[in-house]
């Protein structure tokens, strides 16, 4: 069984290729049972951690399962919040093929899923991106969105201005024109695409700040009691999700409005299955404000793991 490192994963998963691999996966017959989601209490008043077990298989080809932990307070220890491993098996014999570092796999496939949604939901002429959050996902999301839209200007907001400035410098080294912004309202109102990846428990983004034609990509707030955007955003936007089953049960940006009646399930226009299969066209006008909530899906992990396997073994 191969042991595939973070460096190998990063080299194998360029964003244009990964976005297309996800598009094909959402159009395919991959089987994905509901993932196991276990909240784990922590001592001394610390925030709960989460254990996720995410299986998926493509009949006769591949079987995979991701085991991942999410520890919201890891930033205080200079550690990523998401850590884990991915095990890929041969779909015919059941033989273990590879043990894949999952932190990088997860970051890349999560960013690519948002970019896949953006390819249907953001205006084709979107050049300005605002990144809310400065964690591991942030640089991945910026680069992934830039793989599907002509992003040139990047504004970065974070609770820690120094981290936002450091990320801006990193993005400038990659050819973007990036800067940190202390005023979140200003950062939101001037963007074509807003991508948010935080562990906030209360809304950071006000719907009152949104302007016609924007696309809002919400990646953080992975639990039902966490939220990145408020009710006004729900009221002003056309709502899309990665999967109906996951987003309506796990992500607070959809779950809380559903519980309060601000949002109804029938108001959710489409998920990535419906978008990629042509059952919904996505953005309907230049003025529409679109809202995409991602909670993650095991199909994305399997598609990414298969691409890594093909690239490394030239299959």
TrEMBL record:
Q: Which domain of life is it from?
A: Bacteria
The keyword Membrane belongs to this UniProt entry's keyword annotation = no
Q: From the UniProt record, which GO molecular function terms apply? A: ornithine cyclodeaminase activity; oxidoreductase activity
**Top-rank EC class of the record's enzyme:** lyase
What biological-process terms (Gene Ontology) are attached? carboxylic acid metabolic process
**Cited InterPro entries:** NAD(P)-bd_dom_sf (IPR036291), ODC_Mu_crystall (IPR003462), ODC_N (IPR023401)
UniProt keyword terms in alphabetical order: Lyase
Q: Name one GO cellular component term.
A: cytoplasm
Query: EC number(s) in its UniProt entry?
Result: 4.3.1.12
Any keyword Lyase? Answer: yes
Record-stated family:
Belongs to the ornithine cyclodeaminase/mu-crystallin family.
User: What is the name listed in the Swiss-Prot or TrEMBL entry for this protein?
Assistant: Ornithine cyclodeaminase
What is the protein's species of origin? Kiloniella spongiae
